Amino acid sequence: MIKLLHLSFILLSISSFVGRVILSETQPLLLKQTLFKVAPHIINGVLLFTGFILVFQGNWMSIEHNWIMAKLFAVIIYIGLGVLVMRYRGMLRWLAFTGAMLCFAYIGIVAVTKNALFFL
Question: pTM of the full predicted structure?
């Protein structure tokens, strides 16, 4: 049940992020509405909460599960790049957006393979 909730909020989170980027280019005034300011924080808060529950349920806190730390580090980078995407315009925005999407893909692949160095 928690895993399904977590996966659902992953889809909501990435959809929300990409949607807000599109809106910032096409209808930036919409992003000033309360819904567009508050909803991403609620979605990502639930996402992180369910992720922590899964970590504790799976007993993945030991050092042998280093892929969890890799995902956490990638999430921090993803958040930082997301902030750049929403605050800046031009080439920096699109470089940050590309980096954020690469982080998202990395996080997903690590979650499935349980291997932080899957590319080696």
Answer: 0.88
Backbone φ and ψ of 91, nearest 5°: -60, -40
> What's the token pair of residue 4?
């399904």
Domain ranges (residues) in the chain: 1-59, 61-120
- Listed in sequence order, the residues at least 6 apart from 39 whose beta carbon sits closer than 8 Å to its beta carbon are 16
**pLDDT tens digits for range 61-83:** 777 788 888 998 999 999 999 99
Instruction: Tell me how far apart the alpha carbons of residues 46 and 8 are, in angstroms, rounded to a whole number.
Output: 10
Instruction: Name the token pair of 8.
Output: 């659902």
